[in-house]
Amino acid sequence: MSEDLSEGEKADVATPRATPKRAFSRNFSDLQVWSDENKGKRLYIVLISLHGLVRGENMELGRDSDTGGQVKYVVELARALSMMPGVYRVDLLTRQISSPDVDWSYGEPTEMLSSGSYDVDGHGGGESSGAYIIRIPCGPRDQYIPKELLWPYIQEFVDGALGHILNMSKVLGDQTGKGDPVWPYVIHGHYADAGDSAALLSGALNVPMVLTGHSLGRNKLEQLLKQGRQSKEDINATYKIMRRIEAEELSLDAAELVITSTKQEIVEQWGLYDGFDVRLERILRARAKRKVSCHGRFMPRMVVIPPGMDFSNVVAVADQEPAEADGDLAALINGDGNLSPRALPPIWSEVMRFFTNRHKPMILALSRPDPKKNLTTLVKAFGECRPLKELANLTLVMGNRDDIDGMSGGNAAVLTTVLKLIDKYDLYGQVSYPKHHKQSDVPEIYRLAAKTKGVFINPALVEPFGLTLIEALNNGLLVDPHDQKAIANALLELVADKNLWNECRRNGLRNIHLFSWPEHCRQYLSRVAVCRMRHPQWQIDTLMDTSMDEESMGDSLKDVQDMSLRLSVDGEKYSVTGSLDNSAEVDKLLAAKGDPETYNQVKRILDKLKRGPPSSNTEETEPKPDVNEPRAPVNNVIVSNKYPALRKKRKLFVIAVDCYDDSGNVSPRMLEIIQAIIKAVRSDATAARFAGLVLSTALSVDEIMGMLNSGNILPHEFDALICSSGSELYYPTIPAYPDDGSNKKLWPDPDYDSHIDYRWGGEGLRKTMFLLTAPERVGQEKQERVIFEDAEHSNAHCLAYVVKDSTKVRKVDEFRQRLRMRGLRCHPMFCRNSTQLHVIPLLASRSQALRYLFVRWGLDVTNMHVFVGETGDTDYEEMLAGLHKTIILKGAVDRGSEKLLRGSGSYQREDIVPSESPNIVSTEAGYNCEAILNEIQKFRHR
After folding, report:
1. Local confidence band at 779 (pLDDT 50, 70, 90 cut-offs)
2. Residues 6+ positions from 512 with CB-CB distance below 8 Å
3. CA-only gyration radius of the chain, Å
4. Torsion angle (degrees, nearest 10) of CA 444, 448, 451, 457
């Protein structure tokens, strides 16, 4: 196979000895370089870096393990992208932290990084152009917590970020003069937590996702296990490594493009993941180029783009400073106290004060004291090599600290070990370890090392392309970070051989331009431009409200419905047919509303309803199917409103209780719960008019209709029906006449199918599932098949299977792993008390369907209430967390399917759902109307 390994990289192939090696070259034949011709595009780019302390100035790099080079990288990337032609706005989304333990600036909702290229070029960019840090509240508002504890709050962050992006898209649409929303050109997640967030945001908005891993969980796990200090269980408990790995796998599922720093990162690090296979990626790309079917299989495109660097503080050695500065440096080295206070950077004195012999070259390591940075191995290598100690000093810039006891456990342990090693090898006067430095001091520290003819070393165990390597730019030698002796020998060679030192220096100066931010951004935008561009297909103003009369009619009918419910709230039928003849009661309720316009409007509708439907002599004799297209007005009365006015709903109540018997059939208890929730919602006279209802289940649409009919509940009680585990979305109509048969009509969302079709495997997935559900042999004995395809309950985006014996099937995580390894991206789940398996698209689930409604109809997610049981289908956890209100109905569900979700050794529910959240409550007295209403009212008064 001669196809590219990844974009611009050639595969390693065996060649005959007589064939000369060809020079490495990148293939950019299908790539148009980003240029000034793109100035008119006005793009909106969203970057996400969730953890750590992120701000534009005075970055506290090294303060802790979460605030390192990645923070500097994303801030500078945001600034640089905003200065590129065609980029109107860049938002860097991170977590808002309002904690007394950190500076107040991290609690500011917005921070401007730059005014952007439009402002500089004088093109009238508008007040929202440029680059900004946007801080999204999630998790405990008053706590700064490490990234390992942020996982349960990802859903909250996504909901908050989604609200910001929707608002900003509308603002930018107004500013650019077109009026249409300006959707993000791309959403770029940095690190696993942000990748998880970007995948969900990308799915909700239907826009492309880009991923940069920075450091990868599987590689870290491999390195930690190699050290032998901790078991896999201990590593998982400390680093939440399995949750991180799953987030990276999910990111690969959704990403169009993965940006890496080196080819090694692609092959040796991403190659460890189920969702990326080097060989399969080459095959699929070759088939795609030849326009041959890939049978539903996808691999993200991986590209190598070296990180950028801000050169504003970099000065060529020959032009660095006047000759008197060298004299002052010599005075500093010689210990002369008569120095000009302006001559030398203060950090030089802070570093040099540790050394007894300041004439020796400096070996410099600059990183936070994290175990993976491998500083202890460096100190051992230095301490055990006498020639190296005689020729050089060692400088360790290990972040900032006030007191070791106040540092995080891992950092404190590393620093304590370093100090013990200094004492063990008696390195006093030979090792410098300053307590504090500012970000602006970093270039000066490198300059000092260069002036002493020193060497920079990055001994990190995992560092695909660390910023320190770029900042040093002293091209040198590569060593195995585990090999202490090799480290000492390489340092000794560079310090002792001045010719080699000068050659490395010249190489660094010659290649420095390759790592500039403009060059990085040109490659970045060029690569993103060839991604499969996706954006929301729907129009904000749809056929939902074709005229003011139709909208008014729909609202009025809902008013009638709400009133009839309150007139017969204890009755069996929750519909407009309940009490229309009780004119006195209707008049009483209408008068109580105190709104003459509403009174007259509803009275007119009641009069029309009493006159009955149009005559049976009309020419309309067509059948009335369950799913149909809108009909024209008859006798000036709109027969049905195509979409409920969801955008006008102030609150949305979602019923997602998975209540089934042992056979997977609907339990009678489910109908009781639905009726109790409807009664509780409608009994609140103030909120009923503006409250919407959604039913969300694993049932097919026909099963839902049958269930509702058996409980005398009309479909139009609901504003939306989420069917087949989120693979279908319907809007029930509001009939103008209760007896004309229109109550059976459902309107499918016209855009939902195309929205969730992304990376759907279709027939290729179905064939693979047939193989994966085949019985396995145990010895010579072939087992019986226990999973059978269920064509009756399948649909275009849901492969349904009947499970005969749930004790003999693979768990969800194993199914997902095997599908990923084949390049198939989907969402398998067990449902209906483990009696069915549904395989649906990657972007389809019940929780993602709610975000779709949130985005499409402009709902307020904080006013969304989701009712669930104490257990449920294997997508149950996804329904719990977020900014919506979750009400757990105690005693509603006896058994669910969650035992089939994950195997042993995986992450747990506490890594998905916060153990304590103000948005999650449980009923104290079961699932009756009073208990439900009590919890709803508690949320209202918070």
Report:
1. low
2. 311, 314, 473
3. 32
4. -110
> How far, rounded to the nearest angstrom, does the alpha carbon of residue 438 sit from its chain's CA centroid?
31
**CA dist., res. 567 & res. 783, Å (int):** 59
What is the reported pTM? Answer: 0.80
Report yes or no: 77 and 517 within 8 Å, Cβ to Cβ. Answer: yes
- Dump pLDDT digits (tens) for 549-560: 444 444 444 444
Nearest to 399 by CA among 445, 359, 363: 445
State phi, psi for 408 to the nearest 5 degrees.
-65, 160
Structure tokens at 751: 């855009």
568: three-class secondary structure by DSSP: coil
φ, ψ dihedrals at 867, nearest 5°: -100, 125
CA distance 279 to 293: 17
The pLDDT tens digits of the residues spanning 347-389 come to: 888 999 999 998 899 999 998 888 888 999 999 999 999 999 9
CB-CB neighbours of 13 under 10 Å:
7
Which helix (H) or strand (E) covers residue 813, if one does?
helix 812-821
- Residue whose entry in the numeric block shows the structure tokens 């007896």: 739
In whole angstroms, what separates CA 39 from the centre of its chain? 29
Select from 861, 841, 831 the least CA-distant residue to 659: 831
The total of other beta-carbon atoms located within 10 Å of residue 118's CB is: 22
Helix 596-610 crosses helix 583-593 at what angle (to 10 degrees)? 160
CA pair distance 887, 880, nearest whole angstrom: 9
Residues sharing a CB contact under 8 Å with residue 524, sequence separation 6 or more, in sequence order: 81, 259, 305
764 vs 123, which has greater pLDDT? 764
**CA 851/CA 783 separation, integer angstroms:** 42
- Each residue's pLDDT tens digit, 811-837: 999 999 999 999 999 999 999 999 999
**Phi, then psi, of 788 in degrees rounded to 5:** -125, 140
Spatial contact of 864 and 884, defined as CB atoms under 8 Å apart: yes
DSSP letter (8 states) at residue 466: -
